[in-house]
Structures are given as structure tokens and as C-alpha cells.
Amino acid sequence: MTDTTATGVKTEPGIKAIRLRHPWRNTFAVVLLLIVALFVADAAMRPAYDWPAVGKYLFDQRISQAAFVTLQLTVYSMVIAIILGVTLAIMRLSPNPVVNSIAWVYLWVFRGTPVYVQLVFWGLIGTIYQSVDIGLPFTEPWVSFPTRVALSAFVLAIVGLALNEAAYMAEIVRAGLLSVDSGQEEAATALGMSWFQTMVRVVVPQSMRVIIPPAGNEVISMLKTTSLVTAIPFTLELYTRSRDIAAVTFDTVPMLIVASIWYLFFTSILMVGQYFLEKRFARGIGDRRPDKKADDASASLTGVTPVVSSGQPTVVSPATDPPKDGR
After folding, report:
1. Confidence bin at 297 (pLDDT 50/70/90)
2. Sheet of 10-13, strands arranged across
């Protein structure tokens, strides 16, 4: 059955969409919920978890101070790693073969060896180099400091983490810079921009949408990697501090839960920050979501599809209510 509007356009009734049923999908979801509920109920009643001990040590002063130290290690190491990583990325893109080769060797060494081994090496730096000398090569040093005095365990932890992370940040930054089309740089040059202006105003803002997601993951990974600085040894960060308390109280499982809760807390904050950064730098990129207002407007139509014969102009307009007086 067809209808004819006031404009003489033939219309057909719209198709009513029926949602498909997925009984197995719903069944699987219910099974998963039951498994989660059983696990939570079992964990709540299992004595080994010792939830009163978890509540006792969760905000203990020693744990909170260790959590702050872990946060310091993460921030300081990532700042140094980002600066060094950007420098290495630019060196990798340099046409100079010497500069390019030095950056490649750095990445090869620090990406090819485990971070734990590197931290052990930095812990032994005082044995390898007994003093830090400042002066001209092959001459008497102007100033000399004992290595163990000049470089504390905290500083060595930051240096070890930062140098390892810089190798990964360099590849992330390089991938982001290469993702920007070369025509953007050529257009900026044609407008009279210098290389620095081109990088700051054109290349870097466009590359950030590629850099932010993996860089955010590296920050979260760095937060967890700080638990390895005990290899230096540095014992004031969160995991090692909780392990030391457990060695005295014999509450190993509760202290692991306490450390995990703090790691999850910091990770959640970092994930939220990463989400908003990605959203900011991805503006105008990718497929846009359907406009809800447009959907509402289309829903306000008659719900029928116009059928227009060939050669006739097509005009689609929203339906209007008939006059109340019947005219």
C-alpha cells in the first residue's frame, strides 16, 4: 500500500526493524557473572587474604611514604626518558650516518637487555667507577667525587629506569613523527615557517594522536617497573617496603594486596589522564559518530520512504500535523 503526500510524491510504509535475539550470548554473560560472584564470595571468606590486616596496613605511614617514593621514581624517570627519547628519535631520523648509527646502537643495547640486568649493573657502578671526575681527558681532574657519595641509590634507580625507557620512547616518538604526511612539512616550508616552527606548530600536534596511546602505556608500565629497583638495591619503594613489612609480620598475602591496591589506584588515575589526552589530540580525526539530533529529526518524519519517478525533483520535508479544523 502506498500513500501520496501533498506534494504529489508517492511513499511506501517504512520497514520496522526487529532486534535479533542472542540467547547464547546472554547465557554466557550470566555464567560469567556467576563465576565473578563466586570468586568474590570465596575471597571475602578465605582466611589467607586476612582482610582486617589489609585494612590495617593500607594507609600505614610506611606504605604511604613508599607509594609517594614510587610516584617520584615514575615521574622523574619518565621526564628524563621523554627528553632523551625525543633526542634519540630526531637522531634516528637524521641523514647523518654517524648520528643515526649512534642512536641505533643505543636502542639496540637498551632494548636488547633486560631492565633488571641493567639495574643490577647500575647498582655495581660504584665498584666499576670509584670516583666521578670532572676535567679534561688525560689530565688531572679539576673536581673528583666518590661515586657512592655523588650517586645515591635513589639517583641510580632514576638513571637506570630512564635510560632503559628512553629507548622505547624514541621509537614511539619516531613512529609519531613519521605518521605525519611529508606534504604537511612542505606546505609549512612554503608558508615561510622555519624548521622549529614547522615541528612545533604542524608536525608535533598531528603526531601526538599517534604518540599519546603508547606513551601512556609506557608511563603505566614504568609505574610497575619501579618494583625492580630492589636490584640496585633501593628498598624504599612500594613493593620492596611492603615485602619488608611482610617479612616481619608474616602477612605476605595481605601485604601483596595492599601494594596491588596502591598500584591500581595510581594506574587508574593515569588511565583517566590518558583518556582525556587521547580525546583532545584526536579531535577531528577518524569516523564521526552519528548525529543524535539528525536521528531525532529523521524520526520526526512520517516514517515512510518517498518513491519518486525519474525526471522529477526530489524534496524531502518533515511531516506536519493536519489542521485541527479539518481544512
Report:
1. very low
2. 3-4, 10-13, 304-307
The residues, any chain, with a CB within 8 Å of residue 143's CB and separated by 6 or more, are 133, 134, 135
Q: Which residues are paired to 146 by β-bridges?
A: 131
First to last CA, the chain: 25
Which three cell numbers, joined as nine digits, stand for 42?
570465596
| Integer Cα distance of 224 and 77 in angstroms | 12
CB 49 within 8 A of CB 254: yes
The per-residue DSSP string of 41-103 comes to HHHHH-GGG-HHHHHHHHT-HHHHHHHHHHHHHHHHHHHHHHHHHHHHHHHHT-S-HHHHHHH
For residue 172, which of 207, 137, 124 has the smallest C-alpha distance? 207
At 305, phi and psi to the nearest 5?
A: -100, 125
Assess contact for 217 and 267: CB atoms under 8 A. no
CA 33 to chain centre: 28
User: What letter represents residue 6's amino acid?
Assistant: A
pLDDT for 121 beyond 60: yes
Note whether 144 and 134 are within 8 A (CB). Answer: yes
* pTM over the 0.70 mark: yes
For residue 27, the number of C-alpha atoms closer than 13 Å in the C-beta half-sphere is 4
Question: Tens of pLDDT along 149-189?
Answer: 778 889 999 999 999 999 999 999 999 888 888 888 888 88
In the beta sheet, which residues pair with residue 12? 305
Residue closest to 217 by CA, chosen among 164, 175, 260, 275? 275
Pull the grid cell for residue 193.
615557517
